Amino acid sequence: MKYRSVVATRLGSPKVLEIAENDLREPEKGEVRIRVLAAGVSRPDITVRRGEALYTGTPLGQKVPFVPGYSIIGTVDAVGEGVTGEWVGSRVGALMVVGGYGEVVYWKANRLIPVPETVDPAEAVTLILNYIVAYQVMHRAAKVKKGGSALIIGASGGIGTALLELGRLAGLKMYGIASKSKQEIVTEYGAIPIDYKTQNFVEVIREAEPGGIDCVFDGMMTVDYIRPAYSLLKRGGRMVSFGEPPGFSTLFRVLGQFFGSHLLPDGRRYRPYGTSGSIFNWRPFLKDWAALFGLLEAGKIKPVIAAKFPILEAAKANELLESGTVIGNIVLVSPELL
Predict the structure, then answer these.
(1) CATH code where residue 81 lies
(2) Residue 314 in domain
(3) Exposed site from 7, 87, 205, 279, fewest CB < 10 Å?
(4) 290 occurs within a structural domain
(5) Using CA atoms, how far apart are residues 221 and 273, in angstroms rounded to an integer?
(6) How far apart are CA 219 and CA 160, in angstroms?
(7) Domain containing residue 225: CATH number
(8) Strand partners of residue 3
(9) What is the mean pLDDT of the chain?
(10) Based on the domain organization, do 310 and 268 belong to the same domain?
């Protein structure tokens, strides 16, 4: 028997993504086989496909050919030696970094994320990457408090809209940087929009919050934002950057800002965030995913889905994400979910 996946045959544009057939095999020891229901399409998928990734599982990205796909939701249909048969038939998620663009994936049994059967897989898969980043940036890194103020840099994307939704639940006063065409989503969540093309965000925040703000959530991670945004923090404030630095010069600037903030006596702190922390401590991630799935089941969050594509049309989905017009998330799904 065969299954299909989407392979990056070389580095470059979405055109390098091709459909490949693979032999269906039994899972190896400690492994499960998952029939994919949904896969997220994210910025890391693009940077690793282009060969621009500084860290997406390996120091300089992946060697071609490889299958992109950071996160998936699916159903376990077979298990390998040493894995309990109770997993068979269960709905699970996986934070894979690469490998998710396929009809079938093989994954480590000790890195599975339990997923409720009641939730929509297309919505649920956004929790595996985008919402876990937003939740942990907000509650573990910045430790937000009700009534606090926050600036969201890059407020209209998958993680940005998750921050807006979770920030509203947390009772934050929010400012969101987005282009004018995407500001409706910012105001929908009760945030104050700032157009990065026509407004100076530093001037806007200083006028609105002369005493400074409590938090900055930076999804751009560029030199144009890091230092100016950090200067807006009040004493004891927190700034967290997430994503991939666009180059080594920015990476060094990020590290410099991190170490420099710990030398200052004003209590302000800067830190970069990445899901690589799950490698060293899996338990907080499982706890936070469980909390997020609880919010999804209760209807307290509803991820913004900009578009759905069949799994094998990943190239079209990548092209759309790179267009810069997307608000929220793009998801690949199995044909029966369309």
Answers:
(1) 3.90.180.10
(2) yes
(3) 279
(4) no
(5) 11
(6) 7
(7) 3.40.50.720
(8) 22
(9) 93
(10) no
Residue 115 has pLDDT above 70, yes or no: yes
Question: Which pLDDT belongs to residue 246?
Answer: 59
What's the CA gap between 47 and 193, in Å, rounded? 27
Q: In sequence order, what DSSP letters do the residues of 5-38 get, joined into one string?
A: EEEE-SSSSGGGEEEEEEE-----TTEEEEEEEE
Tokens of 19: 């459909």
Indicate if 165 and 80 belong to the same structural domain: no
- Which tokens hold the place of 32? 């499960």
Query: How many Cβ atoms are within 10 Å of 335's Cβ, its own excluded?
Result: 9
User: Does 311 lie in the same domain as 183?
Assistant: no
Statement: residue 56 has pLDDT above 50: no
Q: In the chain, what is the straight-line distance between the N-terminal and C-terminal CA atoms, in Å?
A: 24
What range does the domain containing 195 cover? 129-276
Let me know whether 133 and 78 are in one domain: no
- Model pTM above 0.90: yes
pLDDT higher than threshold 80 for residue 263: no
- pLDDT for residue 57: 43
Question: Tens digit of pLDDT for each residue in 221-262?
Answer: 887 898 999 999 999 999 999 977 656 566 666 677 776 776
Mean pLDDT over 163-176 rounds to: 98
Residues 133, 257, single domain; the answer is yes
b/e map of 253-279 (b: 16 or more CB within 10 Å)?
Answer: bbeebeeebeeeeeebbbbbbebeebe
Same domain as 67, residue 145: no
One-letter amino acid of 113: I
Residue pair 38/332 in contact (Cβ under 8 Å)? The answer is: yes
Which DSSP string corresponds to 113-129?
A: EE--TTS-HHHHHHIII
Mean pLDDT of the region 207-230: 93
Contact (Cβ atoms closer than 8 angstroms) between residue 327 and residue 182:
yes
Do 158 and 82 share a domain, yes or no? no
The structure tokens listed for 320 are 């759309």
* Total domain count, the chain: 2
